[in-house]
Design brief:
Distance between the termini: 39 Å
Strand content: 5-15%
Radius of gyration: 23 Å
Number of helices: 11
Largest sheet: 10 strands, mixed
Shape: globular
Oligomer: single chain
Helix content: 25-40%
Order of helices and strands: HHEHEHEHEEHEEEEEHEEHHHHEE
Amino acid sequence: MAMMSKSLSILMAEVLNINRPVPDDESNPETFNLSTEKERCNQFDQLVYKNRTKRRRIFAGGLIADDSWHVLGANAMETYGIFHSVSFIESNRTQSFEPRNLRFTAGSKDLKMLQSGIYGPTSQTAVYVDQYVNEIKTQPMAKEHMMREMILQKWKERGMTRDDIGIIFDVDEIPSRDLLRAAQICDPPDNNWRTTPDQTCRGPMIRMSYPMMEGSPKCVYKAQGKTELPKRPAKKLFKRFLSSSMVIGACVQGIGDSEKHPPAPRTQKDSVTGEPTGSRGEGYGEKYNWSKMRDGKDGYFPLWNAADFRRMVGGIYVYGGAGFHLHNFFNSADEIRFKYAYFGHMHKHAFDVPLGAMNADMNVFVKCAHDIDDTGNKKIRLKNGLDILEREYKLPAAFQVDGYVDARHDEMVKLVEEDEKEYGRADKFDGNHLYHVDHLTHSGRKNKVKVVADDGGKDEQKNIDRSKK
């Protein structure tokens, strides 16, 4: 692990305090009582308490690659001591099929840190990283689906049963501690998490809606719409990110009863095994379309594969206090540019254009760093968003660490300023259209062009080079 920044040092000092007790441990009568558990159920509108006295186990899983320790540390700190196990999958290839060096290999510093107890006492929460090596080039999303299928296989190997919960997330999608604890003791409506033989698996999911931060805790996305407080409920002020979900074990593929539950046609095949994978065929539940299986087979519906965790609708959606999406919490601009060059949401000019002109997310990143007005942009931030969030919900445990929020934001500002010396700045880019050189407002070493200033039509003359227009 490279030398830590100030903010990361502050955060990891808390994360690496692995001898701290689990604050709400079920085995400790001083920290576990049913009245507290019932209150958690009441905190989330659609969860109810049905006299359960023992918590369900939660098996977690996700893909891992070049994620920063900001998000790894925040994820581990929030969920400390909750998960039965965490199964990460790391690939030797990026989504664009570029080779990458495996990071979490046996004996590596990163793996040792990940397995040191940061997710909870090692006797209680085991952390695994399994490598996915596949030299057959496939469409990027197909590759992700195949990698996530490996998570379900590992859950089965590690003892998952019908009574357990599975949760699949990306590392920067952090479920809140309160929601996880609520899921362990509460129930969704309509008995959707029953584990008796009559479980139909039509809607066995809890989908979490997360407020989203871009690069810094202080850069909170605003939801689309014009109505402000107090006319608009606070939870509807935040842009929502909906990808993480939990499914009861009885409905997880490989765990539930495959004899009773019919298979769903799948849109892809695993390039190694030839097994069906990916999203469901049309009419089998995607986008609420059950036209080819309205009543299931004898009332039973397909078990959920890993793609269903990310794509399916139905079940219940939890808004408010469900978790947080810490997007692009990287330590350097080069790490961000590498991500967009070779991983998700790929940009073929990631090492050419100004950072804030890569896409609408990075536009928020840069304009938040400079505190530039973003009215009319495709995506915008919520003014004083972190303060509003804190008034309504518990902040992530990482944000409660003294000094972390301010230190991280200061580093983000410096990251942007340093990057702009090389790539320039494009304040006129709004995310609604593709970047054009005329959006440039400050030149860098890579794009010395004529910059048109907002000063009544006067031009600020720079070294002109339109060759990249």
